[in-house]
From TrEMBL:
Superkingdom of the source species: Bacteria
Protein name: Ribose transport system ATP-binding protein
GO-annotated biological processes: monosaccharide transmembrane transport
Molecular function terms from GO: ATP binding; ATP hydrolysis activity
Species this protein is from: Enterocloster lavalensis
Length: 501
């Protein structure tokens, strides 16, 4: 590791009603990977947005490459070598790889753009990174992993020496993660400084040199990774010891609550049959593209099924749209909570009340404020939603608290079946445990719980029964406590042998 290239001291930032950063210190050196860790809402992203010019600080000093800077703009930050790769990738999906890489700084001749020159440079940078991509490809046609590689290539095209990666592996497969880590090691060897933000703590040992931990907007500690244990990292992140990463509650398996028979919907939901019972959590495992999310969407009525039946407490229910499912007592916390689960520009109160207007309105359709207050306050209390008040926009909450709002709006309806699709994606270890405890609470109350997860340890740790999918079909069903990751992976790779004409 080399010289200090970023030094941020006593950085403070306040938003309306929230002190996001409180005298935070941070250092980054050349040729190192620094893991910036903390729970959702700890202030990690806010600190990095100040470094990359997205936010301005209220107070504190910032030196980059030995020069002190005042308030940065994104353009100025790029010019001095800072690039940020956001968790939600900022790509123009209709443009090519080359056009995305040179967006806003196109090379122009007297009358036209120098397209061949830009394409040649894009090809050179991709080649240097050993990324197998055609610069002429449309970005929207690429998988998320390749789009992320384009973002890295874009950063290098402006000669970025400081790369900030925010949850870069949240949507990647194991093979794609290995490829990303290869590129990170290459960038580190070139002397670039990398800030790595992730809630997947098991990844750290593969690439990280040092760790900085934040909590509640404050700097807690920094240390060489080799001097820390995972338990110590978690304890400093959450401010307490977490005795069980995957808390399991034992319940007696009860009556059948929900049954799916011969469900077909599109290419990735093919002849699906399974049942959910009281007193158990059923996990759905499989590789990306296995059809798990598509199955949840077909059950909830988002995607139209071509055939199939649903039975709730022994009686058939017709589900042709989400409203049918909601009325029946079957609800979904979707994979993309910001896009499909929340109205992020509406308040917590409005998000909780919106799908429950029939419960809080009188016969004339006028909202009963007292009922609305009771419904919202109960959700915040029961789910431990961390917020200064109900009027805060849902988009201003941390990822874990956003997930709780999504779940809270459904629990107000006394639902019989709750489906979670990737419920812990992008949230910290403390918030994950709270989501697991919530699932266990539903299980104890006799509510049928189904959840989709790409995290194998999570499925094995929380589920009672695991259903494995591959290529749109159920290929295996096992008891979580009597199986192994290898057995699940075997079922998850049982692709059909198709004849090639």
């Amino acid at each position: 590791m080399g010289e200090v290239i970023v030094s941020m001291k006593n950085i403070t930032k306040t938003f309306p009603g929230v002190k996001a950063l409180d005298n935070v210190n941070f250092e980054l050196r050349s040729g190192e990977v620094m893991a910036l860790l903390g729970e959702n809402g700890a202030g990690k992203s806010t600190l990095m947005k100040i470094l990359s010019g997205v936010y301005t600080r209220d107070s504190g000093t910032m030196e980059i490459f030995g020069t002190e800077y005042g308030d940065l703009t994104p353009k100025k930050a790029r010019e001095i070598g800072v690039a940020i790769i956001h968790q939600e990738l900022n790509m123009c999906r209709h443009l090519t790889v080359t056009e995305n890489m040179f967006l806003g700084r196109e090379k122009a001749g007297r009358l036209t753009l120098k397209e061949s020159e830009m394409e040649a440079e894009a090809r050179r940078i991709l080649g240097d990174l050993k990324i197998d991509l055609d610069p002429r490809q449309t970005v929207g046609d690429l998988p998320v992993s390749k789009q992320q590689m384009v973002e890295i290539a874009k950063a290098l095209s402006v000669n970025a020496k400081i790369l900030i990666m925010d949850e870069p592996t949240s949507s990647l497969t194991a093979k794609e993660i290995d490829e990303l880590f290869r590129i990170i090691r290459q960038l580190k060897a070139e002397g670039r400084g990398i800030v790595y933000i992730s809630h997947r703590l098991e990844e750290l040992q593969a690439i990280v040199d040092r760790v900085t931990i934040m909590r509640d907007g404050q700097y807690i500690m920094d240390s060489d990774f080799k001097d820390l244990t995972m338990d110590k990292i978690i304890a400093n992140m959450v401010g307490r010891e977490i005795k069980e990463q995957f808390p399991r509650v034992t319940c007696e398996k009860g009556e059948k609550v929900f049954e799916v028979r011969n469900l077909n919907a599109g290419r990735l939901v093919r002849d699906i049959n399974f049942s959910l019972y009281e007193g158990e959590i059923v996990g759905f495992a499989g590789l990306m593209g296995a059809g798990r999310t598509e199955t949840t969407r077909a059950i909830f009525g988002v995607d139209q099924k071509t055939s199939g039946q649903f039975f709730l407490d022994g009686k058939e229910v017709k589900i042709n749209c989400p409203m049918d499912a909601i009325r029946a007592g079957i609800v979904l916390a979707p994979e993309d909570r910001k896009k499909d689960g929340l109205c992020i520009k509406l308040s917590i109160r409005q998000n909780l009340a919106l799908p429950n207007l029939d419960l809080v309105c009188n016969k004339l359709g006028v909202i009963n404020s007292s009922k609305e207050d009771d419904l919202c306050e109960e959700a915040v209390k029961n789910l431990l939603i961390k917020t200064p008040g109900l009027e805060i926009n849902a988009g201003n909450l941390s990822g874990g608290n956003q997930q709780k709002v999504v779940v809270g709006k459904w629990l107000a309806r006394n639902s019989r079946v709750v489906i979670f699709d990737e419920p812990t994606r992008g949230i910290d270890v403390g918030a994950k445990v709270e989501i697991y405890n919530l699932m266990n609470k539903l299980k104890q109350e006799g509510i049928a719980v189904m959840f989709v997860s790409s995290e194998m340890p999570e499925v094995l740790g929380i589920a009672d029964r695991i259903i494995v999918m591959c290529d749109g079909r159920i290929t295996g069903e096992v008891s979580a406590q009597e199986t192994t990751q290898n057995e699940i992976l075997k079922y998850a790779t049982e692709f059909e042998k198709k004849q090639v004409s």
